[in-house]
Amino acid sequence: xxxxxxxxxxxxxxxxxxxxxxxxxxxxxxxxxxxxxxxxxxxxxxxxxxxxxxxxxxxxxxxxxxxxxxxxxxxxxxxxxxxxxxxxxxxxxxxxxxxxxxxxxxxxxxxxxxxxxxxxxxxxxxxxxxxxxxxxxxxxxxxxxxxxxxxxxxxxxxxxxxxxxxxxxxxxxxxxxxxxxxxxxxxxxxxxxxxxxxxxxxxxxxxxxxxxxxxxxxxxxxxxxxxxxxxxxxxxxxxxxxxxxxxxxxxxxxxxxxxxxxxxxxxxxxxxxxxxxx
Length: 278
Ligand code: COA
Hints:
It is built from twelve helices and eleven strands. The radius of gyration is 20 Å and the shape is globular. Helix 1 (34-47) packs parallel to helix 3, helix 2 (71-80) packs across helix 3 and helix 10 runs antiparallel to helix 11. A seven-stranded mixed beta sheet has the order 1-2-3-4-6-8-11, sandwiched between helices. Strands 5-7-9-10 form a four-stranded mixed beta sheet. The chain is α/β, with parallel strands linked by helices. The two termini are 30 Å apart. It has two domains: 3-207, 2-enoyl-CoA Hydratase, Chain A, domain 1, CATH 3.90.226.10; 211-275. 49% of the residues lie in helices and 16% in strands. Bound molecules: coenzyme A (COA). Coenzyme A is lined by residues 28-29, 31, 63, 67-72, 114, 116-118, 140-141, 144. Keywords: Lyase. GO terms for molecular function: lyase activity. Belongs to the enoyl-CoA hydratase/isomerase family. This is p-hydroxycinnamoyl CoA hydratase/lyase.
């Protein structure tokens, strides 16, 4: 059954361990208003530790994933109220992207259509991203006279080589889902009518993995990017030891099923979680 946030800017369903969350302002191409930002944060917070949610997918209703920040409600109306209102709106937007970057469960962006500007914040916040081949990605800020803020420039530098990031930010030209996949903005592009099935397939694989190991791994991949090799080596030892304190049985069970029981091969798939003692 589809649930909605109080003002309807966010919709979601939970099915088979997956929370299918959607930007839900299709008439406004899912651009992010302060209301949407507040409601998305509340929905993400409410879903984060639910036992029936193992993976979260972020999609968009209608023809857009998200047309970026709402130029009227997020920029013009907010700046008319002064600096305090602007900072508040920024904190709310950046806040839910940050929550999503460090989310407890693995997250997948399912980019069905337009993805512009501020949309790069949640795009990067999701651990994996799949796009429709014909989805359109753009740093359109330059076309209306600002720099790509709200992290969008950083996302371009994180995900793209320098020349591509610079061209993308300066030219204001869009790339389609296929090019976005070639460039590394998303993992894969598939025809729109296969997008949900492909994402469901990926989510199903993730649901079979040890959830403590998934959280430790996704955080580690983000954290080590900013570390020297030696710092990363040290961090990863400590991160694994911290994960062990939440789940001391997981790795032992994984080893037991391989070495003693010979019931699976880690090189070919995950151990059977259902046999693990709590
Ligand atoms: N901010 C505010 N309103 C937006 C919006 C945004 N980012 N994106 C779309 N909308 C609104 C339009 O103003 C229009 O409102 P209206 O029906 O009240 O007139 C409605 O959404 C539909 O948009 P429209 O432009 O008619 O849809 P389209 O399918 O022809 O074009 C886009 C889609 C995404 C190409 C186009 O809406 C667009 O360029 N949006 C702005 C993208 C952008 O620069 N975002 C970066 C912000 S950081």
